[in-house]
Amino acid sequence: MTDPAPARLVVLISGSGSNLQALLEAAKDPAYGAEVVAVGADRDGIAGLEIAAAAGVPTFVDSVKAYETRDDWDAALTAHVAAHRPDLVISAGFLKLAGKQFLDAFGDRYINTHNALLPSFPGIHGPRDALAYGVKLAGATLFFVDAGVDTGPIIAQVSVPVLDDDTEETLTERIKVAERAQLVEFVGRLVRDGWTIENRKVRIP
Ligand code: GRF
């Protein structure tokens, strides 16, 4: 029997793209079962877009400012992602909340990686907030996106220690190393094995 076609991933980014890079590396192995078919960003001039271009992956940029209303932006982002027929859409450091049209189209297959152990420290300053609170464990959460801010069903979590002399930068970096490995592992498992969600519980058979 021939192998099924690799699952189609669209990755959304806003920054350095280290998670994207890890997915591109993993996808070089046919056994991984997925390929990155497009990368979308909400801003130009970011390293992640260069990583995509260097890998020969098509890119698009939808900046909120380029549209008259947030709904128009949401419609454009939805159309650009849909054009690549994704099996999974991955927010990897994408700093925008998708709107209703996007969630209507992809809410059953849109995942996000967040650099905190949810439900603690949602929002864009996860490591900073964790450090300020004084927690001893920090980490990353992979989850299905819903209409809230970092509130959707959790796929996986990984923890790292918070050290006494940590700064926001050192903790952020430690989290990112664990976060990348988790993202690669679980994207692969999701596309290869599928999943169910019942009462918020995500199960991968
Ligand atoms: C990740 O740690 C993500 O959780 C946070 O931003 C980082 C993105 O890093 N929101 P990169 O662009 O993949 O390097």
UniProtKB/TrEMBL annotation:
<feature type="active site" description="Proton donor">
    <location>
        <position position="114"/>
    </location>
</feature>
<feature type="binding site">
    <location>
        <position position="70"/>
    </location>
    <ligand>
        <name>(6R)-10-formyltetrahydrofolate</name>
    </ligand>
</feature>
<feature type="binding site">
    <location>
        <begin position="17"/>
        <end position="19"/>
    </location>
    <ligand>
        <name>N(1)-(5-phospho-beta-D-ribosyl)glycinamide</name>
    </ligand>
</feature>
<dbReference type="InterPro" id="IPR001555">
    <property type="entry name" value="GART_AS"/>
</dbReference>
<keyword id="KW-0658">Purine biosynthesis</keyword>
<protein>
    <recommendedName>
        <fullName>Phosphoribosylglycinamide formyltransferase</fullName>
        <ecNumber>2.1.2.2</ecNumber>
    </recommendedName>
</protein>
<feature type="site" description="Raises pKa of active site His">
    <location>
        <position position="150"/>
    </location>
</feature>
<comment type="function">
    <text>Catalyzes the transfer of a formyl group from 10-formyltetrahydrofolate to 5-phospho-ribosyl-glycinamide (GAR), producing 5-phospho-ribosyl-N-formylglycinamide (FGAR) and tetrahydrofolate.</text>
</comment>
<comment type="similarity">
    <text>Belongs to the GART family.</text>
</comment>
<comment type="pathway">
    <text>Purine metabolism; IMP biosynthesis via de novo pathway; N(2)-formyl-N(1)-(5-phospho-D-ribosyl)glycinamide from N(1)-(5-phospho-D-ribosyl)glycinamide (10-formyl THF route): step 1/1.</text>
</comment>
<dbReference type="InterPro" id="IPR036477">
    <property type="entry name" value="Formyl_transf_N_sf"/>
</dbReference>
<feature type="binding site">
    <location>
        <position position="112"/>
    </location>
    <ligand>
        <name>(6R)-10-formyltetrahydrofolate</name>
    </ligand>
</feature>
<dbReference type="InterPro" id="IPR004607">
    <property type="entry name" value="GART"/>
</dbReference>
<keyword id="KW-0808">Transferase</keyword>
<dbReference type="GO" id="GO:0006189">
    <property type="term" value="P:'de novo' IMP biosynthetic process"/>
</dbReference>
<feature type="domain" description="Formyl transferase N-terminal">
    <location>
        <begin position="8"/>
        <end position="185"/>
    </location>
</feature>
<dbReference type="GO" id="GO:0005829">
    <property type="term" value="C:cytosol"/>
</dbReference>
<dbReference type="Pfam" id="PF00551">
    <property type="entry name" value="Formyl_trans_N"/>
</dbReference>
<dbReference type="GO" id="GO:0004644">
    <property type="term" value="F:phosphoribosylglycinamide formyltransferase activity"/>
</dbReference>
<dbReference type="InterPro" id="IPR002376">
    <property type="entry name" value="Formyl_transf_N"/>
</dbReference>
